[in-house]
Amino acid sequence: MSIENLKNSLPEYAKDQKLNIGTLTRSTELSEQQLWGTLVASAAATRNDTVFSEISEEAKEHLSEEAYEAALGAATVMAMNNVAYRAKGWLGDDYTQVKFGLRMNIISKPGVEKVDFELWSLAVSTINGCEHCAVAHANTVREAGLTKEQVWESVKVAGVVQALAQAIQIEAAR
């Protein structure tokens, strides 16, 4: 199981994504842990079993068990937070001061460098379409020293992984 398997399963109309994922997996913009954690967290966020299993198997060759688990933690805590923060925004000013009231301890103790966890949270938040969370995580990683190019690299990874999931889903439904 691997990203190569994903690439080989893509139809002709998704050729750009085949090329994009090949380029991104060779990226030098992010550290190995940042890149592969972003891939795992993004794959989990797509909710596509094939994309998740293929990326996860290869990622385990590049990530420690702690980093792999933290990437999954980023995907799951952002699944919750992205819904809640978007809803707070939609519901208006009356809800800005309402206590959040949900546990998210992993954000303060992710088991990896905080900047990496925040980068993975950014990628997931972009897939989930939460502007508030994406901006907050981008600001956090920039304050921690990452460049705008590194931030954008994680967004590109998220976008391409989401596109892979869509192509795989289209083909499964055909």
Question: What is the secondary structure topology, with strand pairs?
Answer:
Layout: H1 3-9, H2 15-24, H3 32-46, H4 49-59, H5 65-91, H6 114-128, H7 131-143, H8 148-173
Helix pairs in contact: 1-2, 2-8, 3-4, 3-5, 3-6, 3-8, 5-6, 6-7, 6-8
Strand content: under 5%
Mean pLDDT score: 96
Largest β-sheet summary: none
Contiguous low-pLDDT stretches (5 residues minimum) are none
Order of helices and strands: HHHHHHHH
In CATH's first tier, which class applies?
Answer: Mainly Alpha
- Structural domain tally: 1
CATH topology: AhpD-like
Tell me the helix content.
Answer: over 70%
Which outline best applies? globular
Total E-strand runs: 0
Estimated structural class: mainly alpha
Which CATH architecture is right? Answer: Up-down Bundle
Calculate the terminal CA-CA distance, rounded to whole Å.
23 Å
Radius of gyration: 16 Å
Keywords: Antioxidant, Disulfide bond, Oxidoreductase, Peroxidase, Redox-active center
Organism: Corynebacterium halotolerans YIM 70093 = DSM 44683
EC number: 1.11.1.28
InterPro entries: AhpD (IPR004674), AhpD-like (IPR029032), AhpD_core (IPR004675), CMD-like (IPR003779)
Summarize the structure.
This protein has 174 residues and is mainly α. It contains 8 helices and no strands.
